[in-house]
Amino acid sequence: KDEPVLNVDETGWRTNGAKRFLWAFVAARYVVYTVAATRGSEVLIRLLGAVFQGVLCSDRFSAYLKYHSGQAQFCWAHLKRNLLGMVEFTKNSAVERFCRDALAEHARLFRLWHKFRGGQIDRGQLRLRSIPIQKRIFALAERHLDSPHREVRNLATALFEHNERLFTFLDQEGVEPTNNSAERALRTGVQWRKICFGNRSAEGELATARLLTVAESCDLQRLNILAYLSAAIVCHRRHQQ
Q1: d(CA 100, CA 111)
Q2: Which listed site, 47, 88, 99, 240, has its alpha carbon 20 to 30 Å from 208?
Q3: Do 83 and 103 meet the contact criterion of CB atoms below 8 Å apart?
Q4: Please, is 52 exposed, middle or buried when counting C-beta atoms within 10 Å of its C-beta (0-12, 13-18, 19+)?
């Protein structure tokens, strides 16, 4: 709860066939998992407290909107997937034009970001050169707020209402424009779910969360997972930390 930046995501899980959700909270040096019966904001309150002071990076799922009114970064990869999905299935030229225009601005923004990441420009240049892109995205969203097409209207509303939460990464150190770190953290859990089909008890849920927490945190810190677990068991048996 004291981290300056957190990436959060969740995926489906099962315990004795009952629906559960596996959550991943990714910090700079560690990952924390929990298995919960809900996908709601109460999980965020339990893990992060009533108010989170840092930057919360996530998709636009309602639980995050309900919980966090502070600084946030919404995932551009999710937006891109939404736009590409609309382009693929639409037969309407107006919808396709909106998506193509939005995707073009997305590409320009990420070209700038990659230049910054590659050391070709500094943060000041990143901010300055992104201003025209931000203005065009905002104007595009505003023009389509009353679109007769529901998908366009919903996405335009998201771009318009949450405009500030799309560009936090331009100013804040340690904030990425996507939520890929949380999605990668969940991948191990998803692979495990395919093999074991979830848990059979509350104790199993706790074991899953703790083992994933240790494994992914060790991986993030480039520690040998087996060596760490072996040392932890030895210390436990000797009543040591």
Answers
A1: 16
A2: 240
A3: yes
A4: buried
